[in-house]
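Reopening: structure tokens for the fe (ii) ion complex, inputs below.
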Amino acid sequence: MAAAPSIRCSSCRASDVTAAWTRLDWPDGDFRLAPSFWSTAESDDLLAALDALPDWRQHRVRLFGRDVPSPRLSAWYGDAGTGYRYSGHYHEPLPWPPLLQRLRERIAATTGHRFNAVLANRYRDGGDAMGWHSDNEPELGARPVIASASFGGVRRFLLRHRDSGRREALDLGHGSLLLMAGDSQRCWQHAVPRTRRAIGLRINLTFRLIQPP
Ligand SMILES: O=C(O)CCC(=O)C(=O)O
Ligand SMILES: [Fe+2]
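Re-run output (same inputs, fresh job):
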């Protein structure tokens, strides 16, 4: 089972950039947002470096029984043995680029959680999107801890409770980190809808822990 969510930020040193976490007061899940986990200057550099990764591909996804091109570009990185099936397709992990390795270490050090894989998504403009889903694949375990880092254009992140239908929304901005733990995946779905607003490139990284088989 995943470790209990722990945010060590109440004891952050003043030198840590990762100062402010907000715990979202929603039932049946554990959502915490650090809107400025990275400074703007750091986030600008990270966006450019992530954009330059050579691995962006348009994966195919299964939608209503049909195989269609995904409305975004993606790449799956991880330790050996973190092959992952999502949207009806199996993905072998690419080896960690040093940049992503550093991000993973920083997030692990701050949150106290371990991650062995990351799904990177590149939304070229407001026409790119992600449909409703939960990250509840069996290999993530019963109560997955997912750290979601966003860089670039601010996009709306929608949530809906599976049973009550309650809806929530967050704006995930440049340099933000959203931590989803506990029953967040079992009880809630999330999506990044298309928007007609003129919005530039956005890159999102969801760090995950694939359990050994
Ligand atoms: O782009 C986002 O903010 C969400 C990404 C996501 O839900 C996922 O990768 O599973
Ligand atoms: Fe997700």
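The chain is about 15% helix and 35% strand. The helical segments are 40-51, 98-111, 184-187. Marking as resolved unless the reporter disagrees.
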